[in-house]
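Hey, I was hoping to borrow your eyes for a little while. I'm sending you its amino acid sequence along with the backbone structure tokens. Take your time with it, there's no hurry, and the full record follows here.
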Amino acid sequence: MVHDDALYDVHAGDFVASTGSVMRDSIWPASSRSSARSAHSSPRATHPSPGTSHPAPDKHLGHWLESQRGFLTIYWFDEISHRVSMEPEMERILKRFLNLLTHMIPGALDHRRSVVDSVWKRAAELYGTLGAQRGLAAGDIVEEFQIVREAVVRILFQAPPARYGTALSLSDVLRLNRFLDSGVTHASIGHTDGLFFALFQGNGVSTVPTAKLVAEVEEQLESLEGEWGAET
């Protein structure tokens, strides 16, 4: 479950601060998942009324992924927070990363595909660099980034795109798979670079990034957010 200090605003598509205890439905973390999930814990879907025919597909997979972005972000964050403990400051930065990364996934399948790859790869590398500064092993950062692929597979089965008027083609699925693969690869590259520079500078590897390192990561993250925001 997403921590009490952050709720996900499905309409805005971003995490927002909460000043009190608010009851809500959420994606359950791995330790508490069961077959008894409520309907509200599933990907967003608008079912046609009984007796009506399914609408003819007139949207591509990118449109559908955009509508499911809230699920992807919550699922990704919940899985990571279940596996590792983090300080509130690091949770805040992680949420910014996941918001940016899930914003870009639909762009791999629409008119922005010509520009998304560059920003996506740099964001993934920065995510990997932060992972090294968090003290994660190389395998850990790969597993963290693979979570979003698991979330995509879940929604493909739980809320099939074709059922809601979205065309699903083999070329789109292959494109999406390659796109997610590149994120995993570049997160691993960023992790390796982060370890190298930490050792080269004689700082060693810490599980708690220094304030200076955090500021540098946030500065680069803000630049990437602005660059992608200009494309949307």
